[in-house]
Amino acid sequence: xxxxxEIQLDSAALxxxxxxxxxxATRKRTVSLAKPLSEEDCCVxxxxxxxxxxxxxxxxxxxxxxxILERFEAGFKPFHPAFRVLFNSxxxxxxxxxxxxxxxxxxxxxxxxxxxxxxxxxxxxxxxxDGLMRDGSVEDSRSAAALVELGVQHEQQHQELILTDxxxxxxxxxxxxxxxxxxxxxxAHAAPLAxxxxxxxVVQIGFDGGGFCxxxxxxxxxxxxxAFTLASRLTTNGEYAAFVAEGGYRDPALWxxxxxxxxxxxxxxxxxxxxxxxxxxxxxxFTLHGLQPLDMQAPLLHISYFEADAYARWxxxxxxxxxxxxxxxxxxxxxxxxxxxxxxxxxSSYAPYPGFTPADGAIGEYNGKFMVNQYVLRGSSLATPExxxxxxxxxxxxxxxxxxxxxxxxxx
Amino acid sequence: xxxxxEIQLDSAALxxxxxxxxxxATRKRTVSLAKPLSEEDCCVxxxxxxxxxxxxxxxxxxxxxxxILERFEAGFKPFHPAFRVLFNSxxxxxxxxxxxxxxxxxxxxxxxxxxxxxxxxxxxxxxxxDGLMRDGSVEDSRSAAALVELGVQHEQQHQELILTDxxxxxxxxxxxxxxxxxxxxxxAHAAPLAxxxxxxxVVQIGFDGGGFCxxxxxxxxxxxxxAFTLASRLTTNGEYAAFVAEGGYRDPALWxxxxxxxxxxxxxxxxxxxxxxxxxxxxxxFTLHGLQPLDMQAPLLHISYFEADAYARWxxxxxxxxxxxxxxxxxxxxxxxxxxxxxxxxxSSYAPYPGFTPADGAIGEYNGKFMVNQYVLRGSSLATPExxxxxxxxxxxxxxxxxxxxxxxxxx
Amino acid sequence: xxxxxEIQLDSAALxxxxxxxxxxATRKRTVSLAKPLSEEDCCVxxxxxxxxxxxxxxxxxxxxxxxILERFEAGFKPFHPAFRVLFNSxxxxxxxxxxxxxxxxxxxxxxxxxxxxxxxxxxxxxxxxDGLMRDGSVEDSRSAAALVELGVQHEQQHQELILTDxxxxxxxxxxxxxxxxxxxxxxAHAAPLAxxxxxxxVVQIGFDGGGFCxxxxxxxxxxxxxAFTLASRLTTNGEYAAFVAEGGYRDPALWxxxxxxxxxxxxxxxxxxxxxxxxxxxxxxFTLHGLQPLDMQAPLLHISYFEADAYARWxxxxxxxxxxxxxxxxxxxxxxxxxxxxxxxxxSSYAPYPGFTPADGAIGEYNGKFMVNQYVLRGSSLATPExxxxxxxxxxxxxxxxxxxxxxxxxx
Amino acid sequence: xxxxxEIQLDSAALxxxxxxxxxxATRKRTVSLAKPLSEEDCCVxxxxxxxxxxxxxxxxxxxxxxxILERFEAGFKPFHPAFRVLFNSxxxxxxxxxxxxxxxxxxxxxxxxxxxxxxxxxxxxxxxxDGLMRDGSVEDSRSAAALVELGVQHEQQHQELILTDxxxxxxxxxxxxxxxxxxxxxxAHAAPLAxxxxxxxVVQIGFDGGGFCxxxxxxxxxxxxxAFTLASRLTTNGEYAAFVAEGGYRDPALWxxxxxxxxxxxxxxxxxxxxxxxxxxxxxxFTLHGLQPLDMQAPLLHISYFEADAYARWxxxxxxxxxxxxxxxxxxxxxxxxxxxxxxxxxSSYAPYPGFTPADGAIGEYNGKFMVNQYVLRGSSLATPExxxxxxxxxxxxxxxxxxxxxxxxxx
Lengths: 412, 412, 412, 412
Hints:
- Chain A is α+β, with helices and mostly antiparallel strands.
- Chain A contains eleven helices and eleven strands.
- Chain A is about 35% helix and about 10% strand.
- In chain A, the strands form four sheets. Chain A has a four-stranded mixed sheet with strand order 10-9-8-11. The first copy, chain A, has a three-stranded antiparallel sheet with strand order 5-6-7, with no helix packed on it.
- In chain A, about 45% of the residues are buried.
- The interface of A and B includes residues 226, 305, 365 and 369 of A.
């Protein structure tokens, strides 16, 4: 997610006022996410895997400028020639790109200039799409609508990354600053863990029906899953704290060999945002509301694949495959927290579905390029924008990624 | 392969004269593999992923000493206390182990001492097994037979690694020394490439029937494969040379993103053992017979997953999944070079089969420990010992591994 | 420079209105250096060796708060407890410090808060020193005066680093932003290069006379220098461009062995801030006024020791020792550009003078700690604050440091 | 030492029978050093800084072949064309060289072949030099004599390195094998430490008189040394053990800043060849006779510059400059262990003497190339061949080098 741009552009939908409203709302939400932040917060990059908020704001704008305005706008001229390199993420077909680990060195353009860039592109885009609605060809309207939809989905992905990357940045600061104040004082309450059984059989996997999907969700195809059971809810902080307390990070028998090297090489002893209170007796957790006591009933977050796998082994269970997850989520009641809580690691390596075909040209250039040494996560997280999640959605990250809003749903 | 020791020990077979003959033949073959080598050839380690020949000779002996003699021999005393650490590979349950990258620093014990170690253990093992045949309990005889079988299989794996690692070592030497002289002067002749079709359906995957298998081949279970076609033979050097000549190593569009970084970061331009002749016009290949002209009709060898995947994309095809490979190999005539030529990369990440259960104790300790960020290879290679290959065998290596006897069978 | 805090605190001077004016002017100048910069410019760190402008502003304030207010102010309370860690640079005696490579992650405190920190400390410091002037003991007044002097010198060092580090940051940006507009349109004109002869003899080296010096300039002692000649002026861009044009970066015979590895390992072909114009025919140079045509008559800047040494060898000369530099600068007319142009590399490894004694306690804690694998630079640069340079001043950097305002004066 | 080949070739001496005897004895001693070793011991390289014994044997032979036979022998043909690359160490002017970290991968040529190479070159060299004695021109005889002398000195350097590198290799082996059995059972007895005073004054530094020297010992020139005192003997193991016991490796205040990072980064707690006995109570030391109890009265060996410097600070002393060492060693009685015990670190960075001129051509090609970031050691060690040491000899290594036979003589 946020690393690839996989899409089917053969949609039959036209540009409509509804689409424009979605576009407008999405664009507005990105800016509102940055509201509580200073210019400095928006500019700095905490590690090569993360990007600055300002870069996300500019890159999502670059996307609309490059793939829609440049194609459809009469007499197109880029807002700033250098932005084509600075805010290109990976589209080799488009030309040069600025090195990812140096995104945080771009103190110029300023956040204000990036906001101006957003306004400029939004205005021109509005004018262009209005024109297409009034008197554009059906073909142009279809192409533009598909690209707008893609741009909206793309920007939604980056909205989640804005929160993810920002959280990582703020966590590096010994002052542990809050992004927003905590408003909800109520503690979580975890339901008892139950196991949902699914019989063996051939299941249909992949996107089905109308609307948007990324091309890694296609084609819809068949898989056979042997009988399995899936946990009714996500693993809680309290359950994981027991694993930590009982030496989970010190026992090589619980870890994949490569995971154990990673744990030892980095001296890991607990999840990335956990820390002991001063007296050492209790856990605290860094959150977007600053340091908070660890809520033992709340779902565990920010866990790597290696940690999820080790925990599952310790718990006498395992991680589900992505096919098991999708089959159960499609059919079974009794599963809670499928969406909107935490991305759920599966044991499935990210791979193409049978018959997978990448789209043509620049947008499809990197389709499937990440299908190696990454693991699929399913569901969605509390940081995923409203309306972005769906049953067939495939998120993916390397086994060491800890800074995502990722959690654990066990299987047996 | 060679990195894990996965076995089912519940065999019902007893110690028999036939088993002893297999043991003896296997042990003898290991020593004969080292015959053409000097002590120096046997001692040096060319990279952390490879081990010295002497280490392989000692480690396979350590296996029998530790898992059979120590358990069954009355008044057991180790041949040398330090060898328990020096020649332990990864069995944490057995105790400390010598760091893998430093195996090549062990100029002592000498090759002669290791040969003496082999003789000593072989003699004691023969005596022990003779005794078990004569007057051992059924239970002991079964256990010992299963462990001998495992030790034989284990040693066979290391026989392939001896050739693999030795080839890598000799290739580092600008003198390009030959392991053995070339005796066969006949050139290869590749059959025309045909495509075998397999219908969609549920297939049985995993080991079936009697005899030995590793536990990663179990349990036998069902998979669904959509219709596919598989290449009738392996990719040849000539076919791959066309990929190289047409800029295969210079076009990022052909590579997985991580593969492209690997290619650029290491400045790769051709397979590991290829090099240009002095005039630059023709390819040579380093072989166990020294530098040889590249045989364009012969099967391509020593290719990484990244290279195999890029070649397949360039050729308008893809790599098969391991289930496709096994399903086709089980049912279809028309496939040549399944075994005894080159391990064949599949697009399947190495993962446990549904219901997989690791064995207990030290031998099973690391079962499944490598099931992350590795890709499955099927079939077997020209370096695989006679009788070691089978339909359900799962070899596995990381996507960057180039020094194995690995090749390409395309799918569509 | 900027990395050590070496001082003699046994001055007999008292706190005076003149000292307060110097303090005030120095503190004011730091803030004015940041005037042309945005908050983002002040926050970002371009490499581990450089620090953000905001950090320099806070650290110099921390110095006064920690070493003067904490000692002399009745009822002292730190402005912010966390700042004691965040803005400590290396004084282990004072407690923990924030890791240097992570200084750029501190988006909080904001630049505004740091300016408020400066105002707060300045106000309290003014009040304290006024009180000491009116009715402090002679002992307290002397101690405080020495510490104020040290704080002023320390802040002057950081003023140079602000410009040095900022230049490096802006140079990473493909927009090549200017810190200030270029006002001076006149081109430089280099005088002909002459050689000043100095006879062999015993010379006095080290600080002599009243006023402030760092303790690495003491004790004054004797050295013997054989007869030598020193270049009357610094090497120009044009002279160095000839070295580049004639293959200076491609000939290993010109470089120290370690320097050659550094050149090859980093693919270096010219000084850090040079680049070819688009047509490749002419050099441009990144400056604090943005990209500018390279002025061939102007003194060469931003050169490492390795580059300086290679150039000298190519030019049939060598770098002077620091004793030669000081002896010539002390006695000889005929030398221009000694101060205020570029720090001048010497061939002298940074080492203690005979009889060197570090000061006691936190301020002296790290005295001499950097006296290994660094080379001495003499003189001062155009970025050195007025009044900070002197004959015996010893700046020092590792042989690879390129981002300082450093140049070349040849010797024979 | 062993890394550079600095020489003055303008000697007036001719080829004489005495010279031939020295040559013969030196060549013979190299082979005898390898006598107690197996082929494996001779082949393996324990780290990039060290070379295999076999490589030393071949490289010293390559030297005579390349610089003498190739120049003087009629119809010269190299023993093996590939050896010119394999056993070239750094002479760029001679052509390509094999990468240093891969010297240990050369299992071919075998040790026997290298011995044959030695015999071949020795025989041809003997014949050539005999001829020159009989009827060579004075000019040829002088040139050849100078080169033979250089080759002898060069081989002596490598004789010390053979022992140094071999000790490092054997120490990596958990069996701790002995190179030779211990014959001398007598314990050392350290004399009381006294301090020799030297008055301030101008001293003569550098080689003086006839015979051989390396060019880094020239020109003889003047230095001024302030008054100082020098320890009458080297630091003992017992004295250093007190430093270790009192937390020397845990107190950053004792270390240079870069040294402290090195200690922490490598987790160092004692000298490289020390280890605790099983009960933890006593120190053992790995020696060429295997593991031995640490002799507290014996001189400390195998210490880095950083360790020497930290110890000196802890002991309230410092390391001498190389000029102080040479001045004291030239004039003062009362100093023991100057030669034949341990190389003695000085605080002097390795730098050219005033007026230093490298020799011309390949032999001089790398003269002075190492004169950066290295520190000078004076005296000689127990591994230095008889007759190789002299007052003006300058050995040098980086501040982290621990595996040399290096020790500490304090100064004040």
